[in-house]
Amino acid sequence: xxxxxxxxxxxxxxxxxxxxLLMFAPCFIFYILFHxxxxxxxxxxxxxxxMYKGIAASDWVGLKYFRxxxxxxxxxxxxxxTLVLGLCKVIFEMPLPIVLAISLNxxxxxLFKRFVQTVSYLPHFISNVVVASMVLLFLSPSTGxxxxxxxxxxxxxxxxxxxxxxxxxxxxxxxxxQHTGWATIIYLAALTAIDPFLYxxxxxxxxxxxxxxKHVTIPGILPVIVIIMILNVGNVLEIGFEKVFxxxxxxxxxxxxxxxxxxxxxxFNGGNYSYAAAIGVFLGVISCLFLLATNRVARKYGGTxxx
Amino acid sequence: MWAxxxxxxxxxxxxCNGVQTGNTGATEPEPEQLQTESADTPSEAxxxxxxxxxxxxxxxxxxxxxxxxxxxxxxxxxxxxxTGVQVNPSSAAANNPTEAYNAMVASRDLPDIMYMNSYAxxxxxxxxxxxxxxxxxxxxxPNFQQWMAKYKELSxxxxxxxxxxxxxxxxxxxxxxxxxxxYREDIFAQHNxxxxxxxxxxxxxxxxxxxxxxxxYPLSFRYGLxxxxxxxxxxxxxxxxxxxxxxxxxWRYGPADDNYKSMVEFFKRMYDEKLIPPDWLxxxxxxxxxxxSTSQSFLTMDYLGRINLFNEPMQRENPEFKLNWLxxxxxxxxVPTHYINPVLQHGYGLTTDxxxxxxxxxxxxxxxxxxxxxxxxxxxxxxxxxxxxxxKKLNYKNVPDLRVNSGLNTLGTYLWTDPEAVLSMxxxxxxxxxxxxxxxxxxxxxxxxxxxxxxxxxxxxxEAIKKAKEENIARFILGTRPLDEWDQYxxxxxxxxxxxxxxIYKTAHERATARP
Lengths: 307, 516
Known about the structure:
heterodimer; A: mainly alpha; two-stranded antiparallel sheet; 70% helix; B: alpha+beta; 4-stranded mixed beta sheet; 3-stranded antiparallel beta sheet; 44% helix; globular
């Protein structure tokens, strides 16, 4: 069929779908105004932003702030920490929601299933500040529950929050607790989309529970898993500032100081917005590269990809 | 179809709402820019009859949580009556106005005068062109000129790297910021323990107390490493960062000093023997308050005002409870040390776009007159204070009471204060403490202003040095790095540019003092 490229056709198609477009319009405007237009602000990373004179009148300095960041002695440790923490997040936070979703799917009691679902995704709504407080209280060497339990089996109080090697496990554990339930929702939705006839066919072929999971369920949600993995890898560097900032302290800087907390201390506290913007642009470019690479790999080996 | 449009509209509005609630912070709406075309607005009852017309001065300040900004406060009326200038005050933020002020400067939505809380902030805005240099307007500020001659050093501290004054100096209101040693006098008396006079004493006393109360951590303090720097370092004759040593007349970096090492050794010993809480790094205000009020700790170092804040409520339950202060401990070299003499970096700046400059300058200048000082410290006879036999006394119970009910002593209403006013509300004990303290205060540290290149070095290299220092000091005290590696650690700091870092302050200081 010839593509509808004649001039009148576009206008006609727009008119035919006018209600859909109207519904889409607010979302479109929102994204243009708050996500795409602000990207023009990237220009301040190439300027010495003078708040009073404004963006247009500030002087150009080229790659000065990028070089400043790359040459700073904190660059390597901070980038390493960000990458490692991000990768740990992706690796450790991916399997659990899938396992939970598949397990929930196997449950027969709908009431119990609903109950577990609700309880597991409630922590997602607790603010990071509250979660950080809870973690600190729970792990406190003088008054915390965990140390009390460890004390009962004879292990001395461990000062978790002052040990750099414990920072990543504690952070990842609190993230898993907080967000697993929420991520399960997407997989549960994908699970309902698997054709029940496939299960029946597997039954006829004599498959048991595990074999059904391995050969029907997992391949069924594999596209969703791959897409979410691509998105997560693209977000490897976008670790939330809040929780790390609240859980870290000088004793754990060696593993806990990430780009976002570094920017807070070095740039925001001094009002050096150009420096902060340069670091942000740098991170954005790297995230983009990650996204492209993962998409390519997924397309080649998994068959599914974002584009 | 209308349903579709309605749905789309609702979705759009809820999206907009979602964006707004993303903004954190208790920011007040920005001050309205009153465009006074003519200056013929009728004046309030003016005591000076020089100007019968009053012009409106737009004033922006910020507020503390214990005294939220109130446009109806008496203090604004006092200012208007005394100067003949109509004031339109508003508050931009709670506690830290940096973000709100940044937004105001960037959007060019500035008032006539704004009250800032750091000299670095004022110099930054001034250098970018948002504030004016007060030294250009001295001809219209006679009271201030006289004041400057009397308080030369305080005035010089506000100058920028190139000698401009973007923020006005203040004096007289630092009594709330004294930090000193405190101890549970009642517990010490109960067990016949003498108050400590040196750090060895503190160690010995803590061991005694730990033996008597095994679950306690005799010494507690807040803010972790920051606490070490802000509270204790002075007692070891050093500081947490770059400082000027008056004795040897040189700029030094505290954390590389041998004295600092002594402090680290002291705290390591206390930590190893469980005389300070094991989570000392993360003790915040709430946890620290718990330690003191539940008698889990008996020694601490904090602000003078805290003594009363503990004693008053605790004595209702336990009349014996008594927190009292101690003079500074004898330092490591056997020489008595000092307490910090706090510098309040608050003051007004005059914006470049200010419309009513004459009125604004008049108002600010009046604050440096004796009359202004008295009115803004004491308020009015009868309403705010009483006078008996020549002794004045404020009618309020304490500072929060004074602030909330009259607006006196709130941010933005003082530049030159009479410390006797706040002192008149204190109980005898506190008054005596304040007076006795004066002899222990150190000489004010110079604050040399840095130029933009220096600031850049400090924010990148300085940040790296600070991070390395914090990490290593924490490790030394916790024991994860052996103290014999101290010299190695100093070497690491030097590799990060420590010498250059200190030299910057030396140059800046020489530059500032070389000016006439």
